[in-house]
């Protein structure tokens, strides 16, 4: 159990009384779910995406045909593998698991939570990252999303980076490694947390803004770096609703946007130089959102139309599956059908 009673110098801090506890570590990236007769899904995913994957410093051709070139002298040139954790935290049991246990699993009927989690797991396998799905209980006195700072604090000591995503957030291009994205966003060693801004509408300036009219950052996608400032930040964030350091932070125990509002109202003002804020369009939102051009260029977050998280996953997987099929048609088309070598005649009898 995690409580908030430990001092600031503890390796991790634990949740206060009545808070959420970690229940089940469902699986990690190195656990195989296959038997001796079935190929390991991790190897299948890596094999499928191998022709598509980019190195951390390579140019990227966007789906619109535009070549995206990284800034000069990229910082992350080597793949970090298991030093990066892709993390899911859920209070909900996957509905797909219940269907599977009844022998009724069908991709077409599973919900968007399973779809999002599957996409995160697949992404970790493609790039050789570690992965954890942690099932947690509900808090007694605050919204379930308050688990984020304490969970991150419990895990960050074992990794260089943790990448957390809500179930309705996903990677637009699964062939792009996190190292490439961090190069593109110029994540520096002193950055403890990386988040994208929320959309901001001048017609409704009070929405998605803090008390100083500054746009909130969204905690549905975060990159957390293991550096000397990350634990003090996470501790302050975790303790915020107990009014230990920030009076009135308890107002965000239940009302929207919970831990996100608390972070925006208080935490980032004490640790601003260690927080990297991305523009909304980079890592938040989805196609069709006109406000702030928040259309999820690299990370999509479907606050509405949540079922589309499955569509993004489908498009990525189908791109990988059909790529080798296209290779066959490109290189061996004559073996499939060559009109100069085949002779077809209509019988006039």
Automatic annotation (TrEMBL):
Pfam families referenced in this protein's UniProt entry, alphabetically:
Nucleotid_trans
The UniProt family comment states:
Belongs to the glycosyltransferase 77 family.
Name the InterPro entries on file. Answer: Glyco_trans_34 (IPR008630), Nucl-diP-sugar_transferase (IPR005069), Nucleotide-diphossugar_trans (IPR029044)
Q: Which GO terms describe its cellular component?
A: Golgi membrane
| GO biological process per UniProt | protein N-linked glycosylation
Q: Where would you find the membrane-spanning parts of this chain?
A: 6-29
Query: Per its record, what are the GO molecular function terms?
Result: glycosyltransferase activity
Provide the protein name.
Nucleotide-diphospho-sugar transferase domain-containing protein
Organism superkingdom: Eukaryota
UniProt keyword annotations, A-Z:
Glycosyltransferase, Membrane, Transferase, Transmembrane, Transmembrane helix
Domain Nucleotide-diphospho-sugar transferase residues, every copy: 144-276
